[in-house]
Design brief:
This protein has 282 residues and is mostly beta strands. Helices cover 8% and strands 38% of the residues. The protein contains 4 helices and 18 strands. It has a 5-stranded mixed β-sheet with strand order 9-17-18-13-14. The chain has a 4-stranded mixed β-sheet with strand order 4-1-8-6, with no helix packed on it. A 4-stranded antiparallel β-sheet has the order 3-2-5-7, with no helix packed on it. The chain is globular.
């Protein structure tokens, strides 16, 4: 898949009439509309409407987003003439029901899938958010809840507007295209419940040289497209997290050929159950 850039001259201008609605058809006031390739962002009015003028003609990725909603992305072709009319529909982020308070004399037992999480936490090789810490982050963005454990890593949007997790280190990218030198940020793998969701170092954004017909170079995306967008996801959906900044600290079960820039492991929420009297002493 290619990361699209504008291809027309700066003298050709285009316009867009956009609306941002929720899944019920109601406007989303103050929603943001980003154009990552142009590094521009616009805010919708109280009716969820935006009129963008003086945009360059060409192909661009547009990202509509608002707090509490899953972001929506659309690839649009802009040309001079009649403004392009487009509607973005945002769906609410999935939220679990509020936890039911259970009074018990014994401490709730970790679910089976977190037994190995507890063993790794006790060894202390990584950085961890346990169920109690994650529960205190309910109602906040997952990215905000994770920041205390992401030593040497940060969230950053890629050329398609997807919010990804990257390390402070960089990777060298082969220079087979036009002899251009390329580097890219070192992406952090993201696992969820033992399944690899995002392997950003298996792909690369290559800066292409300017052509005879265009002074502006394009960015081409090569390799696997497995970026996982963390924008709009609430911490409520998760009960634990663990982060390993390098291969040396990464447990064998999460090591792959492209895990050298760090690994984030997320565990989705399941009910905690009360220990029986016989389990309490174990």
């Amino acid at each position: 898949m290619s990361a699209l850039g504008h291809s027309a001259s700066g003298q050709t201008r285009a316009a867009i009439d956009a609306r941002v609605l929720d899944s019920a058809g109601a406007p989303v006031p103050g929603a943001l509309l980003r154009i990552p390739q142009l590094e521009r962002v616009f805010a919708a009015d109280a009716r969820g409407h935006l009129r963008l003028d003086s945009l360059p003609a060409g192909h661009f990725m547009f990202v509509a987003e608002a707090r509490g909603f899953v972001g929506a992305r659309r690839e649009l072709a802009l040309s001079a003439g009649t403004p392009l009319e487009v509607t973005f529909v945002l769906h609410p982020s999935a939220r679990l029901l509020e936890a039911v308070e259970i009074r018990a004399r014994s401490r709730p037992r970790l679910p089976a899938k977190l037994q190995e999480f507890a063993m790794r936490r006790d060894r202390g090789l990584g950085r961890f958010l346990d169920p109690d810490q994650m529960a205190r982050a309910n109602g906040t963005e997952l990215a905000d809840a994770l920041r205390p454990i992401l030593f040497g890593a940060r969230f950053q949007r890629n050329t398609e507007g997807i919010m990804t997790l990257v390390s402070a280190r960089t990777l060298n990218v082969p220079t087979s295209m036009g002899g251009t030198a390329n580097t890219k940020l070192c992406g952090v793998q993201i696992w969820q419940d033992g399944v690899l969701l995002s392997d950003p170092n298996a792909s690369a954004d290559i800066a292409m040289p300017a052509s005879a017909t265009s002074r502006v170079g394009q960015t081409m995306h090569f390799g696997a497209d497995k970026d996982f967008d963390v924008f709009g996801i609430l911490a409520d959906n998760y009960m634990a997290a663990e982060y390993y900044p390098d291969v040396a600290t990464t447990p064998p079960g999460f090591r792959t050929a492209t895990a050298s820039c760090g690994v984030l492991v997320l565990w989705t929420r399941v009910p905690m159950r009360e220990q029986t009297p016989g389990e309490a002493g174990r």
